[in-house]
Specification:
- By secondary structure, the chain is of the alpha+beta class.
- The protein contains 14 helices and 21 strands.
- It has a domain of 215 residues: FAD/NAD(P)-binding domain (3-Layer(bba) Sandwich), CATH 3.50.50.60.
- It has a 7-stranded mixed sheet with strand order 5-4-14-15-16-13-17. A 6-stranded mixed sheet has the order 7-2-1-11-20-19.
- The structure holds flavin-adenine dinucleotide.
- Flavin-adenine dinucleotide binds next to helix 1, strand 2, strand 13 and helix 8.
- Flavin-adenine dinucleotide (FAD) binds next to helix 1, strand 2, strand 13 and helix 8.
Length: 505
């Protein structure tokens, strides 16, 4: 047995990040000598507005052995097939960024390259109609993929969830406590460090209780109690690329049966989210304080709710960016303590999940190998940069210049990698996926095309394929998708049959 095994991992914070960490570590360390303790303070509370996710969350649930229907039922969740972006390219325009591919590749060339070639030749139709996920969103349909029938149009269905974040934390808490994770309630008042290494050795609660450990996971939210307030790790400010710095959230009564997608509507100084759950609708307005004051922002949100508000407005302030080190000494930051890039593509919970996956592969012992920590930090940063670039695409590839905010967005200097991706698409109709990209080819296609980036040329190999052959193949794929979408059950039928929440207001 390794004599350097950790005795105790202490998770500071019981928001989504803290309980995801507790569930994953509780699961992996069950029966081992390493104990897991989570400390949270009900008096401080959680941010609790992270409600929309992206498909890799299914892998997290699978790793934990969570029954998906039970999870949907317990968190009042709905299924999510993509995000509808309204008024982003220009007012009156909308498109859906779907989870999953467009069409079907044939003769070794991606479908989208044939479609762009045909489009350039003047045969104009709707690219988005070639996505089963988009057609399902438009018709409010849902079903799970038929993974055992790879030739079926249903094999490629890709989905995520929209859930009540506080119910999700409670769900994970039950799971983690079932795996022997110990929960300690109380506000941490002070933190002790080793005089030599600077490592955190214990935290002391306001009732005087001291909790010691040899590895600390900081899930304390924006304040970064350990990573920043104690270790002074530093923060990389990304507002020059992502200028929104405030949000107001107000849940409201649902006006209709929930649709299987999130909506992001561009507003004068930011954008508004609408996340339909089984029992209510989550809403929020993300905006830039340089261009809109809080009262106006709240009024904009209230004026655009589907139903009566169900709670007071929850006002939040943030600085987009990330800690200079995600893992510093014996402290690893997760969730809002690690950084925040605004929720436009629902990536925060995903970043918690991927950091946890990386932690499991770089799991430390008491020696805290510096090269493991370095590798963890480098990989995490790469992932943050990829997400950042994808978000910046939405703000900078747009015709909108109708308000000071949108005129400001026109002046944002794109990161080099994003510029390269846009040029490759515009000049040659090509998208190159990088290893471990969160957002693959279909996502880049949907958002670049949806935001008005149009290629001027395409893959020259296609020029030798007769247009009649391309046209016939594309039409056939379109009709397969149309039929497949028609035959799917509605989102409502699917939920009512399999996973209706117990309490639906
Ligand atoms: P928090 O929820 O802030 O939890 C912090 C925890 O630390 C709490 O339990 C608190 O009690 C505890 N704590 C703090 N200080 C102390 C102390 N001194 N002593 C003891 N305990 C302490 N993510 C998505 O994936 N999808 C979305 O749609 C989405 N929307 C968002 C919208 C907005 C406006 C914002 C701000 C975030 C959104 N997020 C979204 C992000 C998501 O909310 C967070 O990533 C997620 O909730 C994780 O938060 P957290 O657990 O890091 O922090």
């Amino acid at each position: 047995m390794n004599p350097h095994l950790l005795d105790r991992v202490v998770i500071v914070g019981g928001g989504t990040a803290g309980w995801m960490a507790a569930a994953a570590l509780g699961h992996m360390l069950e029966g081992s000598p390493t104990k897991v303790t989570l400390i949270e303070s009900e008096a401080i509370g959680t941010v609790g507005v992270g409600e929309a996710t992206i498909p890799p969350i299914i892998a997290f649930n699978t790793m934990l052995g969570i029954d998906e229907d039970e999870f949907v039922r317990e968190t009042n969740a709905t299924f999510k097939l993509g995000i509808e972006f309204v008024d982003w390219f220009e007012k009156g325009h909308s498109y859906i960024h779907p989870f999953g591919d467009f069409g079907r590749d044939f003769d070794a060339i991606p479908f989208y390259q044939y479609w762009l070639h045909r489009n350039l030749a003047g045969e104009k139709d709707d690219l988005f109609a070639y996505s089963l996920m988009v057609e399902a969103c438009r018709r409010e349909k849902f079903m799970r993929p038929l993974s055992d029938r790879p030739q079926s149009a249903y094999a490629g269905i890709n989905y995520a969830f929209q859930f009540d974040a506080s119910l999700y934390a409670a769900f994970l808490r039950r799971f983690a406590e079932g795996k022997d994770v110990e929960r300690v309630e109380g506000r941490i008042e002070s933190v002790a460090q080793d005089g030599e290494t600077g490592h955190v050795t214990s935290v002391t609660l306001e009732n005087g209780e001291q909790v010691g450990g040899d590895f600390f996971i900081d899930c304390s939210g924006f304040r970064g109690l350990l990573i920043e307030q104690t270790l002074e790790t530093g923060y990389e400010d990304w507002r020059k690329w992502l200028p929104c710095d405030r949000a107001i959230a107000i849940p409201c009564e649902k006006a209709e049966y929930p649709v299987p997608y999130t909506r992001a509507t561009a507003r004068d100084a930011g954008w508004q989210w609408r996340i339909p759950l089984q029992h209510r609708t989550g809403n929020g307005h993300v905006y830039c304080s340089e261009f809109m004051d809080d009262e106006t922002a709240e009024q904009v949100l209230r004026d655009n709710l589907d139903g009566a508000p169900l709670a007071d407005a929850n006002r939040l302030r943030f600085v987009t960016g990330h800690r200079k080190q995600f893992w510093n000494g014996n402290v690893l930051a997760l969730g809002l303590a690690a950084g925040f890039m605004e929720p436009l593509e629902s990536t925060s919970i995903h970043l918690v999940q991927t950091s946890l996956a990386r932690l499991l592969t770089h799991f430390p012992d008491k020696r805290f190998n510096p090269s493991d920590i370095e590798a963890f930090n480098a990989r995490t940063l790469k992932e943050y940069v990829r997400v950042r670039d994808f978000l910046v695409l939405h703000y900078t590839a747009t015709k909108r210049d109708d308000t000071p905010f949108w005129r400001h967005c026109q002046t944002i200097e794109r990161p080099d990698e994003l510029t390269r991706r846009i040029e490759q698409f515009r000049e040659g109709g090509r998208i190159f996926e990088e290893p471990n990209d969160i957002f693959g080819t279909a996502s880049w296609l949907a958002v670049m095309y949806g935001q008005g980036v149009e290629p001027v040329a395409t893959n020259p190999l296609i020029a030798k394929v007769p247009m009649a052959k391309i046209d016939s193949a594309i039409r056939q794929i379109g009709s397969t998708i149309d039929n497949a979408a028609s035959d799917m059950p509605t989102h409502r039928e699917f939920i009512e049959k399999n996973c209706a929440a117990k309490i639906v207001i």
